[in-house]
Design goal:
Blueprint: E1 7-8, E2 15-16, H1 17-34, H2 47-62, E3 66-67, E4 77-96, E5 99-102, E6 108-112, E7 116-128, H3 136-139, E8 143-147, H4 153-161, E9 167-172, H5 175-186, E10 189-192, E11 200-205, H6 206-213, H7 215-230, E12 237-263, E13 272-278, E14 283-284, E15 294-295, H8 298-317, E16 324-330, H9 338-345, E17 354-359, E18 373-375, H10 383-392, H11 400-403, H12 412-416, E19 422-426, H13 432-441, H14 456-472
Parallel strand pairs: 7-8, 8-9, 9-11, 13-16, 13-17, 17-19
Antiparallel strand pairs: 1-2, 3-12, 4-5, 4-10, 4-12, 6-11, 7-12, 12-16, 14-15, 18-19
Helix pairs in contact: 1-8, 6-7, 8-14
Length: about 475
C-alpha cells in the first residue's frame, strides 16, 4: 500500500496512515464475516438473517449502543412481515363476438400477488400510450390495454393501476418479452404483507392481440394511438371484445426484521441522525446447474454494513453528541426497499425527529481520492453542509447525471418520499467506469465474494461522514 505521507485520506479531513489502514482492515473483517458461507447470502427469513442480526447487535452493544426499536417486546430487531410470492399458471381468453380465443401461453401470461387473480367478462379499454391524462372513471373496474414503450411502460402502468382497474394488459413486441416476464415471476419475490397488492398484470404479444381482435381493427387502433399521442393526446377507446383472465400464485409468509440501535445524545429534545444500510442479499441465486450458486453479497451490501458499523463505533468513542444517533440495518432492500418502507411506515420515533439520514450501499468500488457521488443532491437542506465538507476533504463532486439513475434504487428514496432529508455520499457512485464494471460482472451474482476488495474509497467516505455527522449532531452548528 502506497504511503503518501504521515497522514492519509482526504487531505482536509485527516487521520494517520496507520489509522487509515486499520479502518480498511476492520471493514474487511466485517465483510469477510457477513459475506461468508456461514451467513449463506443473508436472505430474509433464513438462518443467515438470524446470524446477521446477532452480529450487528454484538458490534453495536460493544460500542455502547442500546436498542432503538422503542418496543420492549422486540428489542434491537423490529419485525417486518413479508409475503413470498411465486408466479404460477395463467389462462387468458378473449371473447370477440361469437369467437372465443384462448391465447397461447407462449404469447400471453398473467401475474398476481394474490393466490388467484380472476376476471370474467371484463370490459376492455384501449389507452395506447396514454396514462396521466386518462380519466380514472374510464379505467376503474375495467381491463386496461396499453402499448409498451421501453423505459416508460413501468411508470405508465403504475399510474394506470392507481385508478383501480381490474387488470392492466401491456402489449409487447414479441414472445421473447413474454417469456422473460414469465421467468422473472417464476422466481420467488418478496412483498410487504401490509401492502398486499391486488394488481393483476398481463403481458400479450402484438400478434396475439391482433389475432384476437382482428388484424385490421387492431392496426387501426395502434395507428390512432400513435398519431394521437404525437398530436398531444389520444382519446381511449372502449373495445367490443371482452376478456377472461385466470392467474395463480404460490404465497407464504416470511418474518424478517429491521435492526435498530441507538446512541443516546446529551439533549433528548434536539432530534436525531439516522445511519442506514441494507443487510439483506439473495442467498442462493445462481443458475441451478452452476458450481457456485451462493450469492454472498460482499460489495452489495456487506461493505455498506461494514462502513456503517465502523462509523457508528467512531461516533460512540468521540466527544458525546447532543443528538441521538440511530443505526438502521434494513431488510429486503433487494425486493423493492421493503425494510426502509416498513421503517418509514412505523418508525421508533416520529420521522420529523430525524434532521438528517445517511445511506450506505455498495461502497467497496473506488479507490481513495475518487470523486464523491452525491445521490439526493438538491433534494434536502443538507446541500451547503455537504458541499463544504467535500471541499474541506479536497475532493470533487461527480456529475449529477452519474448519480441520478440510482436515486430510486436505494433505501434513501423510501425516506425522501416521507420528507426525511436523506442522502447517499460515496465515491463508488462517482467512478462510472468502476461502477459499470461491477454491475456488469458481479452485481447480484455469485462472483460478488469477499476477498481483495477496494476499501480505500470506503474509508474516505467514512471520514467524510464522520465530519458531517459531528457537525449536524451539534444544534449550535446545525439547528
Amino acid at each position: 500500500m502506497l504511503v503518501l505521507s504521515a497522514c492519509a485520506s482526504s487531505a482536509g479531513i485527516r487521520v494517520k496512515q496507520s489509522e487509515f489502514v486499520a479502518l480498511e482492515n476492520a471493514m474487511e473483517r466485517h465483510v469477510d464475516v457477513l459475506a461468508s458461507v456461514e451467513f449463506a447470502g443473508r436472505r430474509p427469513g433464513t438462518p443467515g438473517e438470524t446470524r446477521t442480526l446477532a452480529y450487528l447487535r454484538g458490534e453495536m452493544e460493544r460500542a455502547g449502543y442500546v436498542s432503538g426499536t422503542n418496543d420492549p417486546a422486540n428489542p434491537w430487531n423490529a419485525p417486518v412481515r413479508l409475503v413470498s410470492v411465486t408466479g404460477g399458471e395463467s389462462r387468458i381468453e378473449i371473447v370477440n363476438g361469437k369467437r372465443r380465443i384462448t391465447l397461447d401461453p407462449a404469447s400471453a401470461t398473467g401475474f398476481t400477488d394474490r393466490r388467484r387473480g380472476l376476471v370474467e367478462g371484463g370490459e376492455m379499454v384501449f389507452v395506447g400510450h396514454e396514462s396521466e391524462n386518462v380519466a380514472p372513471d374510464l379505467v376503474r373496474g375495467r381491463v386496461v390495454v396499453m402499448l409498451s414503450e421501453p423505459g416508460v411502460s413501468p411508470s405508465r402502468r403504475a399510474q394506470l393501476l392507481e385508478a383501480g382497474p381490474a387488470a392492466v394488459i401491456t402489449v409487447v413486441e414479441g414472445a421473447e418479452t413474454v417469456e422473460q416476464m414469465r421467468q422473472l415471476r417464476a422466481r420467488e419475490r418478496l412483498v410487504l404483507a401490509s401492502e398486499g397488492a391486488d394488481d393483476l398484470l398481463v403481458f400479450v404479444t402484438d400478434d396475439a392481440m391482433g389475432d384476437a381482435l382482428g388484424g385490421s381493427v387492431w392496426q387501426k387502433l395502434r395507428d390512432a394511438a400513435t398519431e394521437g399521442h404525437a398530436a398531444g393526446g389520444f382519446a381511449p377507446k372502449l373495445l367490443d371484445a371482452r376478456i377472461n383472465i385466470d392467474t395463480r400464485s404460490t404465497r407464504r409468509e416470511v418474518m424478517s426484521h429491521n435492526f435498530i440501535a441507538r446512541l443516546p445524545g446529551t439533549d433528548p429534545n434536539a432530534g436525531a441522525i439516522l445511519l442506514l444500510a441494507h443487510w439483506d442479499h439473495f442467498g442462493e441465486c445462481g443458475p441451478p446447474d452452476a458450481e457456485d450458486r451462493l450469492c454472498n453479497g460482499a460489495v452489495d451490501n456487506a461493505s455498506g454494513i461494514a462502513l456503517m458499523i465502523e462509523l457508528a463505533q467512531r461516533l460512540a468513542k468521540g466527544k458525546p453528541l447532543a443528538r441521538d444517533i440511530y443505526v438502521l440495518g434494513t431488510t429486503a432492500e433487494e425486493w423493492g426497499l421493503l425494510g426502509a418502507r416498513a421503517f418509514a411506515e412505523e418508525p421508533p420515533v416520529p420521522l420529523e425527529s430525524f434532521v438528517a439520514a445517511f445511506n450506505f450501499d455498495t461502497v467497496a468500488i473506488a479507490p481513495r481520492g475518487s470523486a464523491v457521488g452525491y445521490i439526493g443532491e438538491g433534494m434536502t437542506p443538507l446541500d451547503p453542509l455537504v458541499f463544504e465538507a467535500v471541499k474541506k476533504a479536497r475532493r470533487e463532486l461527480a456529475p449529477r447525471e452519474l448519480t441520478e439513475p440510482f436515486l430510486q434504487r436505494q433505501d434513501g428514496w423510501a425516506l425522501l418520499q416521507r420528507d426525511v432529508p436523506t442522502v447517499l455520499l460515496s465515491n463508488a457512485f462517482g467512478d462510472e467506469e468502476k461502477m459499470m464494471a461491477f454491475l456488469a460482472t458481479k452485481y447480484h451474482q455469485a462472483t460478488d465474494e469477499p476477498g481483495a476488495l477496494e476499501l480505500g474509497g470506503a474509508v474516505d467516505d467514512l471520514l467524510l461522514h464522520e465530519y458531517l455527522i459531528r457537525r449536524i449532531a451539534d444544534p449550535a452548528k446545525y439547528p
